[in-house]
Structure formats: structure tokens, C-alpha cells
Amino acid sequence: MDIKVNDKTVIVFDLDDTLYNELDYLKSAYKSIALSLEPNNWKPLYLKMFSLYRCKINVFEFIANTYKIKIGLLVEMYRNHQPQIQLFDGVLEVFEAIKSRNGKIGIITDGRSMTQRAKLKSLGILSYIDKLIISEEIGSEKPNSLNFIAIEKALSGFEYYYIADNLKKDFIAPNSLGWKCVALIDNGKNIHFESHKYMDSQYLSLKFISDFEDIKII
Predict the structure, then answer these.
(1) Hey, what long-range contacts does 28-37 have (CB within 8 A, 24 or more apart)?
(2) Which example biological process does GO assign this protein (predicted)?
């Protein structure tokens, strides 16, 4: 799809499963925990953790019982590790094209401040972002419209876009505010994968893309 960008265009992105796969964050956290618990032979533990996760067995309960560690500590290790994650192909090119045409870039993401900021730092895109809205910092989560209104207040524009992946909650507020909404189709690794339940008439205005190479900034 073509998006015409000028200094009055604001393009806002979700983070998890939109700019990178959240599953890769989980894998990165499991690796960090495994390295901490078994520094000389971490790979078998990592394999077991990921296998338990895929079998929907409580990974932290297994770790807590095996290594006599409180689950709360494991949760902190998970949330506060420095992630090893990568942008989807084409994201950086889209960001650079938006900036080259004087457009503005925002991020609206649910989650904890420290965790989400660590992800953005790892992805190397903080310098591109004109306004960052994180649910913990603003005190509300999607689909609350306050998160989107905060973008409108911070970044003036005639045209607002929101590019995200979760049909359940991502597009309700921006649709109601008259934003143009673009849904990134699940690549098979998304954490939230029940889009078929949320494809009624309120989503008919959505544009769908398979990946970021489907976006042409003009």
C-alpha cells in the first residue's frame, strides 16, 4: 500500500508482534535465565524451558521447583533482562522513508516501562521516535482512547496512521478517532493469534499488509 507522507503526517506503530516477534523476546529471556542458572551448560535447560512453554506447561513453576527459586525472582529476571531481538525486514527502511519526508513517528505499546524501553533500545530505533506512549507510564492500556489522544496532543498532524497486529484491541480507539488503520497479518509466530474472532464490520476499514515490504512511503 502507498502512504503519502509530509510534515503533517503522523504514523504510529505498535511494538510487540508488529515491529518484531514477541516470541523472540520470550526466547531471549529464557536464554538469559538458563545462562544464569546453568552458565556452563545452559542449552539443555533452555531447550526444556521452550519445550515446556510450547506444551503450555508452567515454565517458571518448573524452574522454581527445580532450582529452589521464587517465581517472583524469575519474573523479574524475565522482565529486566537485556533482550536480543531484531526488527522485521523492511521496518528500518519504512522509518527512514518517513523521516526523509518530514513525517512523524510514534509508538503506542502496552507493557512495563523498563521492559518496553529495553526492547526499543535493543531494536535500535529510539532515535526515530517522536513520541512514545507506554501503558505503564500513562496509566491506561489499549483499547483506551487516552493512549491515542496523547499522541494527537504531542504530535500535531492532519493525518494519523496506526500500524499494529492485534485485531482484538489495537484498532478500536484509532478507528473511533478517524485514524487510518493498517493491520499486519500474523506471520505464524504471533503471541495473540485469534484474529478470526474479531473480523466483524467494525474492521472493514482496515488495510492489511503481509509485511513491511508491502508499505511504500511516497
Answers:
(1) 28/81, 28/83, 28/84, 28/85, 29/77, 29/78, 29/79, 29/81, 29/83, 30/59, 31/84, 32/77, 32/81, 32/82, 33/63, 33/74, 33/77, 33/78, 33/81, 36/77, 37/63, 37/67, 37/69
(2) small molecule metabolic process
Distance CA(218)–CA(199), nearest Å, equals: 29
Are the C-beta atoms of residues 98 and 215 closer than 8 Å to each other?
no
Whole-number Å distance between alpha carbons of 147 and 170:
11
28-87 per-position pLDDT tens digit: 999 999 999 999 999 999 999 999 999 999 999 999 999 999 999 999 999 999 999 999
Return the C-alpha cell found at 41.
Answer: 551448560
| pLDDT tens digits along 26-41 | 999 999 999 999 999 9
CA angle at residue 176 from 171 to 179, to 5 degrees? 70
Pairing of strands 159-164, 9-13: parallel
pTM, rounded to two decimals: 0.93
